[in-house]
Amino acid sequence: MLRVDLKAHHKIAIAYFLLAALLGIFLRLFYVTPVPGNYKYILHAHSHIALLGWVYLALTGIIYRLFFHKTELSKKYLYIFLATNISLLGMLFSFPFQGYAVISIIFSTLFLFCSYFYTAFVLRNISKKHSKTHSCKLIKAALWYMVFSSIGPWALGAIMSTLGNTSIWYKLSVYFYLHFQYNAWFLVGLLGILFYLFQKLNIDFGAKKFKHFFLLLNSGVILSFFLSTYWTNPPLVFYLLGGLGVMLLLMAFYQLFAFILRNKNLLKSGLSSFNYRILMISGILLIGKILMQSLSAIPFFADLAFNNLDFVIGYLHWVFLGFVSLALFAFLNWLNLLHIPKKAFYVYLSGFIISEALIFYKGLVLWLGLPFFGDYFLLLVLVSALIPIAVGWILGVNLLKR
Q1: What's the predicted TM-score (pTM) here?
Q2: Is residue 182 within a helix (H) or strand (E), and if so which, with residue range?
Q3: Cβ distance 390 to 351 under 8 Å?
Q4: Structural domains present in the chain
Q5: Sign of dihedral through CA atoms 53, 83, 94, 41?
């Protein structure tokens, strides 16, 4: 029987992460020295390969491992995986040279269809044994959010051909997509894997408590989208809905973190000390994400973020390079899908922390009118280079490991 090589799958995912990280360094070099290329085009390639190459492939591979690795569905999955990689490679070799144009749009559209086929594959084939578990309910919700987020890209074509890319609807479509990727598909998907971990370690969340948590979480995820509309000076009801979304999320995560603290000894005993440490750091970064998101419910901070690109970049990297990627490292290491060397992890963490400090420093300097030190951009390039070095280290170790 044909089997999916999930270790090879995740080596490909981490390879995309390396490419995205190298493109990120290339983007930062634009501020240091003359660089051949179009900044905006390379930015498109960087963001698409980071979100769709690394995070999407890592998450979908883990979901397959949790629910299907002992089934006879490998052939269907491999076809979807192959088509997904064709779309990713198409985006990788078209975006840097033409930005959003015919070829890149074709491959982006192919990716959307691949994601739909993957979602249908999971929803149709999940066994009854799994479908009633807390982890499966969260992962199903995450997949629906991923599909829902694609309304944004579909709307962009119509908006660009009618209203143009200067319309507020253009930005709202982008924000809609990013919100339901970062704050729904990624977040809820990772929580689903966390609840699978609870299940394997026999840590019972409780059916009634989970139902309450699930309702709070999903209501908060949906309503907090309205935070992304504050920059348009919308009607008062939008501010109220966004604020309510934040309150619901705070209640949901208070419940989750209180549960984790009560059961931390069981988590410690069920995980290696290294995996436990990565998850705890990821959890701290998640708290930071929630607090920053909560601040954006206050119009002053919403306007500040909209008018200061460094705060937005810092937040997006905090979520992507911090909370999301660290959680994926921990889960991949725990499931033995990738080996994460300790030294490589700490090099990565150092690059992440220092680069985030520099990005938020620049945002504060521009906001408060403080003096700006020389060679900032060169230092940012050198510090950020620790990230692709660490990711390349992880990839190399796993390629050499038999």
Answers
A1: 0.95
A2: none
A3: yes
A4: 1-125 (1.20.120)
A5: negative
pLDDT digits (tens, 9 = 90+) for 314-356: 999 999 999 999 999 999 999 999 999 999 999 999 999 999 9
- Please identify which residue in the block is written with the tokens 């948590």: 213
Residue 293 CA to residue 220 CA, distance in Å, equals 12
Provide the b/e sequence for 250-277 (b: ≥16 CB within 10 Å). bbbbebbeebbeebeeebeebbeebbbe
Contact between residue 173 and residue 161 where contact means Cβ atoms under 8 Å apart: no
The rounded distance, in Å, linking the Cα atoms of 297 and 208 is 30
Angstrom distance (rounded) from CA 357 to CA 354: 5
Backbone dihedral region for residue 202 (phi beyond 0: left; psi -120 to 50: alpha; all else: beta): left
Give the Cα separation of 18 and 392 in Å (integer).
Answer: 6
Q: Report how far apart, in Å, the C-alpha atoms of 80 and of each of 4, 91, 118, 145 are.
A: 12, 17, 7, 19
pLDDT in tens, 109-166: 999 999 999 999 999 988 888 888 999 999 999 999 999 999 999 998 788 878 777 7
Q: Is the dihedral of CA 25, 30, 33, 38 positive or negative?
A: positive
